[in-house]
Amino acid sequence: MKIQKLTDTISPFAGICFVNNCFEKTGLSQLVDTELGDRVSSIGYQYSDIIKNLTNVFLSGGDCVEDIGTHLGKHLKTIPGNNVPSPDTVLRGIKELSTENTVYTSDSGISYNFNINEKLNRLNIKSLIHTGQLAPEKYHDYDYDNQITENNKYDAKRTYKHTKGYFPGIATIGDKIVYLENRDGNANVKFKQAETLQRSYTLLLEQGVRINRSRMDAGSYSKEIIDVVDKHSKMFYIRANKSENLYGQIKQIANWQTVEINYKVYEVASITFKQFYQERGYRLVIMREKSNDGQIDVFTGDTFIYRSILTNDWQSTEKGVIVYYNQRGASEKTFDVMNNDFGWGHMPFSFLNENGAFMVITAMVKNFYNYFVGLVSKVFEGINPTTRLKRFVFRFISVAGKWAYKARQWVLQLYTNQPYDKLTA
Question: Quick one: the chain helix, strand, coil %, rounded to 5?
């Protein structure tokens, strides 16, 4: 086998040029610098440069900021007019955007750190509106969850899963992260959650984004939290915790209906909820199935497994409520994507507040990816709006190309027959 070495500057990641073009063309660079302000003029790189290059890292298949220096920087620098900061500059810029932690003390005297970054969360929501992914004055469905992000950073705390890490509260609309607060890993899921939700709803409403339905797991089952959710949502669906009071109501149900959900048969019923409120007329939707081991439940005295959903929706059938609630698994997929594709599995800093800023920014990167892959899917076969990042890198970003200056303008020459030209129309 003979080998011939060529000295032409050819990038194997030429597809990233279209990412940068879209970032500029949509006006996101201008939005970022307008919202975050200018950095010190002597520094040379604006926040838009930092966020755009962080986007370049992940959309080129990188998994940490250092990839700019070790793998991607020389290719990114071949793009005409592209400002490519060093990894240290990117990390300094993210640190500058971090905020001090807020310390809350529980009734038992234990202190917990919460990181509230209103500026970055507001920018994230505005970027979603700017790209048409959220529509002001329209009603959207909202999910909230707390997700353990395992790590061994300096201030990581031991979580309820007996691992070290953080326990951020994350709100999503569809597959888009719309709000994030980083929290100590040992914080109880219900602790100050009502305040977190209030801040999230307020920022969305500030931009005209309204909530139709809110959906949450049993970690949001408390009177204080339900009050906030009910105030800001047309309807809500929250998994109810087991309790003696609750099962006292369930044991009084005489009429159960049989339904099939995902090819499995359940018995379902509805009752008026009386545990926290007497006057609001909330509905408790209960489903039950026979336990496999035949063990008698200590609360109900029978051999059924019970699950309950608290809601103010009396129009939907029991099956409709259960099926809609079960669809919240889509938000858990978003967390998997963030951990594996967008850097949450490789936190770059030692402290919760700086990593909190990183998490919000990478959530913005992921949201932009959703927008961009949607555009690409319209002209590229084999790519659809839900394509995972690895497949996207192989099918779109990894294309050989080089820039040539011809007739007083830069021309991107690509070694492919794929329809990249249609993206510039």
Answer: 40, 20, 40
Tell me if the pTM is above 0.85. Answer: yes
How confident is the model over 205-232, as pLDDT tens digits?
999 999 999 999 999 999 999 999 999 9
pLDDT (mean) for 314-335: 89
What is the separation of C-alpha 124 from the centre of its chain, rounded to a whole number of angstroms?
11
Contacts for 313 with CB less than 8 Å, ≥ 6 apart: 213, 235, 237, 283, 321
For strands 210-216 and 139-146, give the pairing: parallel
Q: How far apart are CA 146 and CA 171, in angstroms?
A: 9
pLDDT tens digits for 175-204? 999 999 999 999 999 999 999 999 999 999
The stretches of 38-117 forming alpha helices (DSSP H) are 47-59, 67, 73-76, 87-96
Q: Position 262: which residue type?
A: N
Assess contact for 199 and 118: CB atoms under 8 A. Answer: yes
**pLDDT for res 227:** 95
In terms of DSSP H, where are the helices of 233-302?
244-250
* Residue 230 CB neighbour total at 10 angstroms: 17
Kindly list the distances between the CA atom of residue 71 and the CA atoms of 75, 207, 278, in Å, as whole numbers in the listed order.
8, 39, 62
Which pair of structure tokens corresponds to residue 228? 């906030």
DSSP annotation of 219 reads G
The two tokens of residue 96 are 């500058």
Which uninterrupted H or E stretch holds 374? helix 352-376
Residue 335 structure tokens: 């967390």
Residue 328: band (very low, low, confident or very high) from pLDDT cuts 50, 70, 90: confident
The answer on pLDDT for 293 being more than 80 is no
Q: How many CB atoms lie within 10 A of CB 210?
A: 17
The whole-angstrom separation of Cα 297 and Cα 304 is 7
| Angle at alpha carbon of residue 14, lines to 1 and 175, rounded to 5° | 125
pLDDT digits (tens, 9 = 90+) for 345-381: 999 999 999 999 999 999 999 999 999 999 999 999 9
- Tokens 């990390």, residue located: 91
Residue type, 7: T
Give the chain's mean pLDDT. Answer: 90
Is the alpha carbon torsion for 355, 361, 362, 363 positive or negative?
positive
Residues whose CB is less than 8 angstroms from the CB of residue 419 and which lie 6 or more positions away in sequence, other chains included: 379, 380
SS3 358: helix
